[in-house]
User: Fold this.
Amino acid sequence: MATKRVVIDPITRIEGHLRVEVVIDENNVIKDAYSSATLWRGIEVILKGRDPRDAGFMTQRICGVCTYSHYKAGITAVENALGIKPPLNALLTRTLLDFALFFHDHIVHFYQLHALDWVDILSALQADPKKASEEAFKYVPKGYNPIATGEDELREVQKRVANFAKKGDLGPFKNAYFGHKTMRFTPEQNLIALSHYLKTLEMQRIAAQMMAIFGGKNPHPQSLTVGGVTCIMDLQDPARLAEYLTKFKELADYTNRAYYADIVMAAAAYGNEPSVVQKNNLGNYLTYRTMQTSANGWLFDACGYIKDFDLGKFYEIDESKIEEDVTHSWYKDTGFRHPYNGETIPDYTGYVDGESVDGEGNLVKAKVANPKGKYSWIKSPRYDKEPMEVGPLACMVVNYAKGNEKVRKVVDEFLAQTGLPAEALFTTLGRTAARMLQTKTIADYGLEAFNNLVENLKVDQSTVAPYVIDKNKEYKGRFIGDVPRGMLSHWCRIKDGVIENWQAVVPSTWNAGPADGNGKKGAYEVNLIGMKLADPAKPLEVIRNIHSYDPCIACAVHVMDVKGKKLGEFKVDPLYGAC
Amino acid sequence: MLDVQKVKQRIAELRKLPGIAPKSISEILEENGFTRRDFLKWSGALAVTLGLPASFAPVVAEAAEVSDRLPVVWLHLAECTGCSESLLRTDAPTIDDLIFNYINLQYHDTIMAAAGWQAEENYEDALEKFKGRYVLCVEGGVPTKDGGEYLTIGPHAETGLHKLKRTAKDAAAIIAVGTCSSFGGIQAAAPNPTGAKGIHKVLNKQVINVPGCPPSAKNIVGTIVYVILFGQLPAVDNFNRPKFAYGLRIHDLCERRGHFDAGEFVEEFGSEEAMNGFCLYKKGCKGPYTFNNCSRERFNQHTSWPVQAGHGCIGCSEPDFWDSMAPYEEPLANHKFSSVSADATADKVGITILTVAGVAIAAHAAISAIKNPKE
Assistant:
């Protein structure tokens, strides 16, 4: 059987540097796939020997998109190691920052990064604005009206784009996949989504401001400290609290009137596009509780997983079963290792000479991954030796399986409105929908955390817990929790008052990692298999599927503990005595 | 010093070049509810930001009008995309934002529609078509160790180092956006495992640095407008930072400066002093050593900035700040320079200067503490 390789590098509209390669047969059906990260930065090795109080600021710079996730994780891991319990005010304030982050990250992902896989901008020029305006009412949840889809507004949007297109140089939209066979929106639907694309540019600024109120700035907020939060003045100011509340409501409103509606619209239009509703091949989903709303409550409270797409059985997590393997990663083989005991020795072997279908459909020379060898800077995390998908989809389905009532209500209503079976969640469409459903859960129920904070502030002023770092003691601790791209964990050891070791197992590592030593593939790779491409020169189906995970590759390429100067001459660290 | 005629001449030249924007900027502004007068007001404000005489305001406006003639290629190297995200946050419905959108953005991998071979084609086309005319904005440090193999881009696995050099060759101007491309950033912190550097270290052309982690959008847009105005880079300090943005210390315009002068300091986060907004110097604020306009401009449409949120400045727009400013929650004067970081910091002179300044400021803090004993 004659197969061909299609190399896609760079995958754009993501954070970071990612390459995906697919192997197709003569019918353009994907037989195999390789996911490869092409950048390594080495932040964990830089953390070694530093003041534990500094760790959060440095881990934060792992990523400027989920800009708060690694900050909170870095600070919390140290708190966990030192046995610090931050005051409730601090914990709830951190949740408020999380809300801002999730609102921001998810709407920007769908509209600015993912939408161009679904929306054909040029087709929107053919739309009848009046018809489109009426159609928009079909997709909103009960009790809501659509937003930014009045006939007048849509006419304006059309005019702007028409003028833009007339010039012949589309700037950032140049060479897009306009007219691709798998684009299923009608001109009217395209116009509705396009209007929201523009509107989201405005809304995301509000979400960023929302974070800055208690975070100081966004990206890269700066109000967390080991033990609590520093924004005590803002928390004491009723005007600041009101400012937050107003912005929360604006974002919640937008989520229902635009984001929710557009996903319902996508479900209607793309319901019979095979590449979008092809069932995932990987049936394992893993999540960890996130967004604390009270002393003992969490908005998403499940800590565990489901297997084989089975929504009927929820399994609790056992942290000791988290391991990473590097058989196909550019590190010397060490077998499966728990993050506390991880060992990593770089072994860059690069790509090999090969051929790829190019943008014209011709076979040309290219550098390609060697699937028998190593081909990515990302490691392969496994749970109990099994690959797991993490992300909003995992968060929603696992919480659903566990019986989280809020999640159940949001998911069931969506399935009822779209007429989709629960099965449909386990697809590209479902993954994109789950991100919205997670946002809607925050929109509908998140204020509980805000109200509890306001109540608690009346009786309790504390924002920071005191602590000491004993230089004669050794500590270890971790953070685990879901962030916008899924389950994140940071694992640290502290010795002599400084960081002895740091490991981060991030969501995009779980999803984007290469095959492991047992030949089991991660979510990106395995879920592409079986998908048929309409045109290998323009592999939009692959790009859409990969975008549905919301890749964050700067996050995923981090882990390495090295000493020495020259590649190939790294020494194994004599890591980790008993602790 | 500044020749208005020369600037006008340059704008006239730019006008002759083909633009890509669908409408003139005046039309776009009008559609968004801005009048010509608003626009001139903005131009005036920007002229002031840029340190130009008020008479330059109309020229700034003219420059903005031809800004779409200025093709921009935005290259991502070893980075976290925080700088691009920062740009997304500019005011709404904003003039700054419109100016940014109005620029002829030829390549930016976070927002462009095309991927893979199509993206590569856009890149090569832009380099060819706008040879010698494009502005290159770089986000991220450049890994240099082992030939730069820690970053490859594209189907031919070209190293970031190679791509940067090739792209810089025919650029009209090069702007390093953020601390990583300016000075190497987080990945260049000791022991710098990938040999990451600021891009000026590997290019033999002038690079203007717009540092910050991330920098404010105003500083970036201001720099680009300056390039259009003068066809050259703005006046810079020792570290090639535009003086209009990085001319003053955070400390100079800090809202808590009064407390510093009065010797009122926060000793512990979460304390009554913290609630009263006292100076954060003793909790490690690096405002006295950091040149940037955060205390004046703040972030997210003036919503806040770290000092307002009760945390000290970490010095993120200074070279090697990850090493030289650590620990971030302790005063610099306490820094013993014995850590792994100091050993690897090349700029010993910089540290000496910082130490001298630190000692003076610490002395003040100590003396004030004696003068104002706490209850």
